[in-house]
Specification:
With 229 residues, the protein is of the alpha+beta class. Helix content is 41%, strand content 15%. A five-stranded antiparallel sheet has the order 4-3-2-1-5. A hairpin with a 2-residue loop joins strand 3 and strand 4. Helix 1 runs antiparallel to helix 2 and helix 2 packs antiparallel against helix 3. The protein is flat and about 65 Å long. This is Probable 26S proteasome regulatory subunit p27. InterPro entries: Nas2_N, PDZ, PDZ_6, PDZ_sf, PSMD9.
């Protein structure tokens, strides 16, 4: 108890038990691991919230005594687990990003090796378009939009598939928690939102400008409800 803020277990690149070699996991397994980590991080964050503390909240009173309004042991254990999981998440995201780039590099090489009917290679613009489309895999769907809300004024519609929200995409949205963070940090400022909209057999790609704001006549800063895919 000399240092009440210090975790009892040192943080490391891989959490729990014998370290796993994440680099040996396939892309589907990496994506499943990403979802598992994000789900556990969300649950652990709820534990801290139930105590009314964050990762940096003091566990002592103003005069240096342990707080008696919280379960300090549980808070410390939870914080340690969160530190481990954050390290794991960073490692998994690096491997996913590396795998995505390697996959599309192979596609580009394959396309470049195959000449078209006039004997020229596939244009780089086509390759770039294919790459960008796949990297913009939808990660959320607009479930509902309130009339007259910032989302409605930006042009969002129920059923739209969200490919990116500011700098948030399918690789880093963390079960949409990062979207909420972007919204809070950009109140009163336009955020670029890329969506896919289906109309029968036609899919349209849209780049909308959404400005989160209060006092628009409804709840929240957007006036829409997103659900993860």
């Amino acid at each position: 108890m000399d240092n009440i803020h210090a975790p009892t277990v040192a943080s490391g690149p891989v959490s729990g038990g014998t370290p796993r070699d994440l680099s040996k996991l396939s892309m589907p397994d990496l994506m499943q691991e990403k979802e598992r980590i994000e789900a556990e991080l969300s649950a652990l964050s709820s534990v801290l919230q139930s105590h009314g503390v964050r990762m940096t909240s003091s566990l002592t009173t103003f005069d240096g005594f342990p707080r008696d309004d919280i379960d300090i042991a549980q808070v410390r254990t939870t914080r340690v687990r969160i530190i481990h999981l954050r390290n794991d998440h960073k490692e998994v995201m690096k491997l996913i990003e590396k795998g995505v780039h390697a996959h599309f590099a192979n596609l580009q090489n394959a396309q470049g090796a195959g000449p078209t009917t006039n004997g020229t290679n596939v244009p780089s613009a086509v390759q770039s378009s294919t790459n960008n489309t796949a990297l913009g895999t939808p990660f959320a769907k607009v479930n509902s939009v309130v009339s007259g809300s910032p989302a409605d004024q930006a042009g969002l519609k129920a059923g739209d598939a969200v490919r990116s929200f500011g700098n948030i995409n399918w690789l880093n949205h963390e079960r949409l928690s990062k979207v909420a963070q972007v919204v809070q940090e950009n109140e009163g400022r336009a955020v670029s939102v890329k969506v896919s909209r289906k109309d029968g057999d036609t899919t349209t790609e849209l780049d909308l400008q959404l400005t989160p704001r209060q006092n628009w006549g409804g709840r929240g800063l957007l006036g829409c409800h997103l659900v993860p895919l």
